[in-house]
Design a protein that fits this description.
With 633 residues, the chain is of the alpha+beta class. It folds into five domains: 4-41 and 190-332, 3-Layer(aba) Sandwich (Molybdenum Cofactor Biosythetic Enzyme, Chain A), CATH 3.40.980.10; 43-64 and 156-188, Alpha-Beta Complex (Molybdopterin biosynthesis moea protein, domain 2), CATH 3.90.105.10; 70-89 and 105-150, Molybdopterin biosynthesis moea protein, domain 3 (Molybdopterin biosynthesis moeA protein, domain 3, Beta Complex), CATH 2.170.190; 341-413, Beta-clip, CATH 2.40.340; 450-618, NADH Oxidase (3-Layer(aba) Sandwich), CATH 3.40.109. It has 13 helices and 34 strands. Strands 1-20-22-23-19-15-18 form a seven-stranded mixed beta sheet, sandwiched between helices. The protein has a five-stranded mixed beta barrel with strand order 24-26-25-27-28.
């Protein structure tokens, strides 16, 4: 995207401007808008007021986190050598306090959650496992080094990047900034926006309309959408259908980065906006888009200002802002301009006549087969009441034949989906460390620390009873879809079973007792692999790369899930034939593993043996033992 400075041109340079485009397709219209939407520079803001802004600089950790070996539970600091013994408790360390001295063998020190462990501590035994009394506590026989301790620097090393430039600051990220002592941050400047609504028939919100008048709803709606898109400064003025009044409102909006007009952009007698824009000195980039609603949409520039003329019908104004103005605003602050969306199946037949692309309000709900997309039947682009139940827009192209029920369609979220999971997540950075118990939203940073996600990944078994946002699950599956594959064969398939459904319960029934923890997952994914090459005229032959490629896809899935703050735990230990039958895996595919997807929970909910597995330190061979230069040593 170009810098706005590159676009600053004098009035004389405009004499060579091309005639405005007309009747452009919706994709071309969006391209033209984004080509004109440049960055606005940066500003320094107090961290406390930075939520909603986009970072313009990397933020690094001012020290190691945690800065000490931190107790993860209320319990007792012990040494592993005392396993199976009863030892006296010789002291106590509360959160924020300092230990009186190092831990000596044959003793224990009571520690509270968040407290620094005394020097020499090798494990923390939870209170409920310690059989504590006046004579001391018992160190369990199965205690292992590192148990219930977050080592110094295990979350972030001093100087490590904790948030990267280009990510939006959310309340969770605000907490990260405060944690590392960032009192002020550089952020991309958000555009200011002026809304000008037109129409003699419109009275202000709150006023009593006459028999032929209507209350103005477009202005408040556009202001709300602008603020949701990240605009901080926004004003609204309503003018009557008078060219001089419209020009006057445009002049008053001259200091704003974006100007949005609603109404008066078509070709009727009272559609005065195009003429007013010309008198004001704006250059029209395009007028009329091959879409419905909102065919008369207009886009212009005036110097560095972006000017949008939205049709006055409420749903046409809504679509124009959602698809074009919102994209420009997000592009200007450095965020992905594309709205959150997905694909689903059309729940009922729907016909699109004419020759324009239709963006139809729809209701998207989750069922066992995925997203079901039901078009909302309205009485046209002025029918706010009919469209208000929609939570998405579905894009449908015109044609002689109707779009049949079951057809795969693309939709864009307007609100939270109905059914399982949460709505579209606001893009957020990856801040989840080994102790993360809640998911972060997706990172928009193209240079995100993938290695951190790989090294921090743990196959946790303690899972919380917390919903997993559906967009995060979809991101993990998308990462798997793009894994390397010879000849693009993609021999793997993932079958996702949602907790609370029949397929999930059937899969849960196939688990061995040692994998009972997986029943707490929000999703169970069956990984199936086609291990034979099929050919229409030749005998099948083994695909020696199939399992490797499935492993690469699974690695992508696990890494993306970890980077988004989820637990993704691949495992075997289930009845293979039962799992195949549970989700209908066809012949020709081998069921290899399952993956439990969820959010990390409280280890205390696990049985002692399973909890000990979660507490084991994660170790790998040194790099020198697994990678060699030139030849095998």
């Amino acid at each position: 995207m170009r810098d706005r400075a590159d676009m600053a041109v004098g009035a004389g340079a405009r004499t060579l401007a091309r005639a405005p485009a007309t009747h452009v397709g919706p994709d071309r219209a969006l391209e033209l808008v984004l080509a004109a939407a440049g960055r606005l520079g940066v500003r320094s803001v107090a961290t406390a007021s930075a939520v909603g802004s986009v970072l313009a600089e990397d933020v690094v950790s001012d020290r190691a986190y945690p800065p000490f070996d931190r107790a993860m539970m209320d319990g007792f600091a012990v040494t592993v050598a005392d396993a199976g013994r009863r030892v006296p408790v010789v002291g106590e360390v509360a959160a924020g306090a300092r230990a009186a001295g190092a831990l000596e063998g044959g003793t224990a020190v009571a520690v509270m959650t968040g407290a620094p462990c005394p020097a020499g501590t090798q494990a923390v035994v939870p209170v409920e496992e310690a059989s504590a009394a006046e004579d001391g506590m018992t160190v369990p026989a199965g205690v292992v080094a590192g148990q219930n301790i977050a080592g110094a620097g295990s979350e972030r090393h001093a100087g490590a990047v904790v948030l990267r430039a280009g990510v939006e600051i959310t309340p969770l990220r605000l907490a990260v900034l405060e944690s590392v002592g960032a009192r002020r941050v550089l952020v991309n400047r958000a555009p200011s926006l002026a809304v000008i609504t037109t129409g003699d028939e419109v009275v202000p919100s709150g006023a009593e309309p006459g028999p032929t008048e209507i209350r103005g709803s477009n202005g408040p709606m556009i202001l709300a959408m602008a603020r949701a898109a990240g605009v901080v400064t926004a004003v609204h003025e309503h003018v009557r259908d008078d060219r001089l009044a419209i020009v006057g409102a445009l002049v008053a909006a001259g200091d704003h980065d974006v100007v949005v007009l609603s109404g008066g952009v078509s070709a009727g007698r009272y559609d005065l906006v195009p003429g007013a824009l010309a008198a004001w000195g704006a250059e029209v980039v395009f007028h009329k888009v091959e879409q419905k609603p909102g065919h008369p949409l207009l886009f212009a520039t005036r110097g560095n200002q972006l000017v949008f003329g939205l049709p006055g019908n409420p749903m046409a104004s809504h679509l124009g802002f959602h698809r074009y103005v919102r994209a420009a605003i997000r592009g200007m602050v450095g965020l992905d301009p594309a709205p959150a969306g997905d694909t689903g199946r059309l729940a009922e037949e729907f016909r699109v006549g004419g020759r324009r692309t239709l963006f139809q309000p729809c209701l998207v709900a989750r069922d066992e087969s995925g997203w079901a997309v039901t078009p909302v039947r309205t009485k046209g682009s002025a029918d706010l009441f009919g469209a208000a139940v929609a939570n998405a827009l579905v894009r449908l192209e015109p044609g002689e034949e109707p779009h049949r029920a079951g057809t795969r369609v693309r939709f864009e979220w307007l609100a939270e989906p109905v059914g399982i999971g949460a709505g579209p997540a606001v893009p957020a950075p990856v801040v989840a460390g080994p102790e993360a118990s809640e998911p972060t939203a997706p990172s928009t940073d193209p240079h995100g620390d993938v290695l951190a996600a790989i090294t921090e990944r743990r196959a946790w078994r303690a899972l919380a009873d917390t919903p997993v946002p559906v967009p995060l699950l979809v991101r993990a599956l998308e990462a798997a879809r793009w894994a390397p594959s010879a000849g693009n064969g993609q021999p793997w398939r993932f079958v996702v079973a949602v907790r609370g459904t029949g397929p999930f319960e059937r899969l849960a029934a196939t688990l061995t007792p040692g994998n009972a923890w997986a029943k707490a997952a929000r999703y169970l994914i069956v990984v199936a692999v086609r291990t034979w090459h099929e050919h229409p005229t030749k005998p099948p032959k083994p695909n020696r790369l199939a399992l490797l490629e499935a492993g690469l896809a699974l690695g992508n899935l696990v890494t993306q899930a970890t980077q988004d703050g989820l637990v993704a735990h691949p495992f075997d230990g289930f009845d293979n034939a039962g799992a195949r039958a549970a989700v209908g895996v066809p012949e020709g595919f081998e069921v290899t593993v399952m993956v439990a997807i969820g959010i990390r929970g409280d280890p205390a909910l696990l049985d002692e043996r399973t909890r000990a597995k979660d507490a084991r330190p994660r170790e790998r061979l040194p790099l020198s033992e697994v990678a060699f230069f030139d030849e095998w040593p």
